[in-house]
Design a protein that fits this description.
Elements lengths: L1 E5 L5 H15 L6 H10 L5 H6 L2 E6 L2 E9 L8 H6 L20 E8 L8 H15 L4 E7 L3 H6 L3 E9 L5 E10 L13
Parallel strand pairs: 4-5
Antiparallel strand pairs: 1-2, 2-3, 3-4, 5-7, 6-7
Length: 197
């Protein structure tokens, strides 16, 4: 049975194993292998700020970590700790990632990854519902995300609409195509058991 809990620093080693495993398996067919490896190196990874804020969730099937994802009340839209370190923002100071105004700015959905053996079994949907509920309780009216191409179907199923397509430039000259998507926090989520995540 799936159990969702707030991720803690002790989960970081397991998250650091799950994220590249998920990215390599579930991004195949959407991105080239060199692009996937570059994204793992430069973008995909745990964000210690989300964990410290208590807004990053880990999904367990028994003792096994099978998925992760979170939401954020901060300005950062994507990227793990390695992006902050590369930008010189990795010192953990709160002002490095300022808080959003719930009345005027959308919360962020961040860093969803599912173990390939548990893909399309409701793991992502369960985490996403937890994120939407938490953002609503925090007073946010809208929620936004930068979806990688494999995640678009899940987010569309939850009522997220495409706003813009753009590419994240990577240090090796490659670029990662993503889609900016948004929805009202109060839009109804799918009934339990639906969705592909």
């Amino acid at each position: 049975m799936l159990c969702i809990k707030a991720a803690t620093p002790s989960d970081v080693p397991a998250l650091s194993e799950l994220i590249p495993l998920s990215a390599r398996a579930l991004s195949r067919g959407y991105y080239s292998e060199p692009l996937i490896e570059s994204a793992i190196l430069h973008v995909f990874g745990p964000d210690s700020r989300l964990i410290a804020d208590g807004t990053y969730f880990a999904a367990f099937d028994g003792e096994a970590l099978v998925g992760c994802g979170g939401w954020s009340r901060r300005r950062t839209l994507y990227g793990g700790d390695q992006m902050k370190a590369a930008a010189g923002r990795g010192n953990g100071r709160r002002e490095d990632d300022p808080l959003l105004d719930p009345a005027t700015e959308p919360a962020r959905i961040r860093a969803f990854f599912v173990h390939p053996d548990h893909a399309r079994r409701g793991v992502g949907s369960l985490i996403l519902r937890s994120c939407l509920d938490a953002a609503r309780q925090a007073g946010f009216r809208r929620i936004t995300l930068a979806s990688t191409l494999p995640g678009v179907a899940l987010y569309r199923a939850f009522g997220f609409e495409e706003r813009e397509r753009f590419e994240i430039p990577l240090p090796d000259g490659l670029s990662l195509p993503v889609i900016l998507m948004e929805r009202d926090v109060d839009s109804p989520p799918l009934p339990a058991g639906e969705g592909r995540g």
